[in-house]
Design brief:
Length: 312
C-alpha cells in the first residue's frame, strides 16, 4: 500500500505543474456515460472536481462514494457533489443518466454540502428531466444567446435542488465515529493526497493508527485507506497524462513518487499500461482541456444522448 512502500516518500515535495485548467465558464450537460469516459476512470476513481456536479440517474443502479460513505443509487436518484468534495460513482450495467456541471461560483446558489435525493414525485422527476433536456438542446443548437439560456436553466435546476430540501430543522450530528473519521480522511485526500506521506502520514494527522483508519474506511466505504489514496493518485495521473504535456518524471514527483520508474510501476500495476501508453490512449479522446465533451445531442422524446460513439 502507499505509505509503506519506499516508492513514495516525503523527501520529494510536489513541484508546481503546468496544469491549471480554466474554470468552467458555463453550466454544461453531458450523458452519464460520456462523462465517465471509455475506460470509466473519470467517475469510478475517487477524486474531487473544480466544479459542482449533479448526477441524475434515470435508469438502472449505481454506487457512489460521497461524504465519507458508500451509497447505493437507483432510478430517479439525484446526487449533488459540491466542488472539492471527494467522490466516486460506478454505474451498474445498463444504467442511464444525465449530468450537469456548474461553475464553482457563489452566485449559483447551490447547496454547500453533498446531497443524495430519492425523487419519488413524478412531477419533480419530469421537471428536472425537462430542464436537462432544455440545456442539451441549447448546447446542440448554439443559437444566439444560448450561453445565457443555459445559465438561466441551470439556475432553475438550483431552485429545484433547493425545493428538495427538507422543511424540518436539521437534526443534530449523529454520525457514528467511523463515519466521522472516514469523512475527515476523505477531506484530507482532497488537499493532501500528493504530499508523499502515505496512509501513515494521514493517520497521524488525524490522530489515529493506520489500523484504526483502515477499519473505519472498510466499515463506511468497503475499501482500505490505502486503496482510496491509490485511487485518488491514479485519477490525478490519468488527468495529468491525458490533458497536459508535462514530462512523466515531473508528474511522478508531483504525485509524491520517488521517481519515474516507481510511478511507471504503479500505473502499470493499476492499469496494465505504461504512463506513455495511457497518454497515447488519451490522445484519441473527444474531450476538451477541462474534460468536457461537446457532442451531446437530443434523442427521441427529448432524451439526451451522445453521438454514436457514446456507450449509451
Amino acid at each position: 500500500m502507499i505509505g509503506t512502500n519506499p516508492r513514495i516518500g516525503p523527501s520529494h515535495p510536489a513541484r508546481p505543474m503546468p496544469f491549471d485548467p480554466a474554470p468552467l465558464p458555463h453550466p454544461h450537460l453531458q450523458t452519464l456515460a460520456r462523462l465517465a469516459g471509455t475506460d470509466g476512470w473519470e467517475l469510478a476513481l475517487a477524486h474531487d472536481r473544480g466544479e459542482h456536479l449533479l448526477i441524475w440517474l434515470t435508469r438502472g443502479q449505481g454506487v457512489a462514494l460521497l461524504d465519507g460513505t458508500r451509497r447505493g443509487l437507483g432510478p430517479h436518484n439525484a446526487l449533488f457533489v459540491p466542488a472539492r468534495h471527494l467522490f466516486a460513482f460506478e454505474a451498474g450495467r445498463g444504467a442511464l443518466g444525465l449530468t450537469v456541471s456548474f461553475p464553482a461560483r457563489a452566485d449559483m446558489n447551490l447547496p454547500a454540502t453533498p446531497r443524495h435525493l430519492h425523487v419519488r414525485d413524478s412531477r419533480e422527476q419530469a421537471e428536472l428531466t425537462a430542464l436537462c433536456d432544455a440545456i442539451g438542446r441549447e448546447q446542440l443548437q448554439a443559437r444566439p444567446g444560448h450561453a445565457q439560456a443555459v445559465e438561466a436553466l441551470a439556475r432553475l435546476i438550483a431552485v429545484w435542488l433547493i425545493r428538495q430540501e427538507p422543511t424540518a430543522p436539521d437534526a443534530p450530528e449523529t454520525a457514528a465515529p467511523t463515519r466521522r473519521l472516514s469523512r475527515a480522511y476523505c477531506r484530507r485526500l482532497v488537499t493532501s493526497y500528493a504530499d508523499g506521506g502515505g496512509v501513515a502520514g494521514h493517520a497521524a494527522a488525524l490522530g489515529v493508527s493506520v489500523n484504526h483508519l483502515n477499519r473505519a474506511c472498510r466499515a463506511e466505504i468497503g475499501r482500505t485507506a490505502g486503496a482510496l489514496l491509490e485511487d485518488r493518485i491514479l485519477h490525478a495521473a490519468h488527468r495529468l497524462l491525458g490533458r497536459t504535456r508535462a514530462p512523466v518524471q515531473d508528474i511522478a514527483r508531483h504525485l509524491g513518487f520517488s521517481g519515474p520508474a516507481a510511478f511507471s510501476r504503479f500505473v502499470r500495476r493499476r492499469t496494465g499500461r505504461s504512463p506513455t501508453a495511457l497518454r497515447r490512449r488519451a490522445a484519441g479522446g473527444a474531450t476538451d482541456s477541462a474534460g468536457f465533451d461537446r457532442t451531446v445531442e437530443t434523442g427521441p422524446a427529448g432524451r439526451l444522448r451522445a453521438r454514436s460513439h457514446d456507450r449509451e
